[in-house]
Fold this protein.
Amino acid sequence: MARLAGKIAIITGAAGGMGEAATLLFAREGAKVAAVDLDEARLAPVVEQIKAAGGTAIAIGADVSKTTDVERIVARTCAELGLPTVMFNNAGVDSEGKRCILDIDEAAFDKVVEINLKGVWLMIKHVAPKMIEAGGGSIVNTASIGAFVAASSAGYCASKAGVVGLTKAAAVELGRYNIRVNTLCPGATETPMARNQRAEMIAKGLPISNEIMDRLGVLGRMALPEEMAKMALFLASDDSSYATGADFINDAGWMAMCGVTVQPWSGGNHNRILKEYSDDDRHTFPRQGAPRRHQAEDRHPHSQFQRGTALGRPL
């Protein structure tokens, strides 16, 4: 049986990346889906694909940081699909250009917090009453490993940490109504947002830290959006029926790694998994003031000593 059979889901940020992957997956698993994104035109191919496969979906262009837009999302979902029982709050931006906290302007900071944090709150505020009317449901909020470590710019990390706190408060307050609320905390994921960030940084002449992104985990690669969508499906479905108020970290083990260099297994060939990066100078991210280095050990996923502390040195 489909894991979301009979469910009505709202997914924000549905036009690309994890949101698009989740929209297609949730529909395949039986949900009727309200796909939400700022640009409704970009949702058309996603919705058409679902309908072509025999599923049900509608496209809603909306800004989740605006109350009137959120009210319209709820109204259209209820009128055209029914009472929502699943919500994946996935809309988000990382628009500070990876700038230092001292260089971020107020407008950029405000935009990130408005969409990433306020948008999640507004969606919960207006959708949860309909979930209560439906008898309960599951809310999945996209946070980030940036909620726990400084993996991006200040506003982004602050907004995602806020999502983690908001999720716990919502889980406690809404549990009595049979609504579960959890966070999905992705690591480095190959999404349009990640690709756009790299392009913008190149255009501005800023250093590209691809090496760090490619090494954000012990698996030696970035995640696919579909891998995050599958985790969201688990949290949205009854498979996670006892989980609420929890942070589900899906980061290929990056947060489990420390800053101390560990020698590779003597019986293995770790150079094999790193071959694809060996000729790309962009994947070299030396310590400040240090020369670029290309030895194999610098590319091993565990060779993190140079960035093991904020000060860049051992005790």
Observations:
- The mean pLDDT is 83.
- The domain at 8-255 is CATH 3.40.50.720 (Rossmann fold).
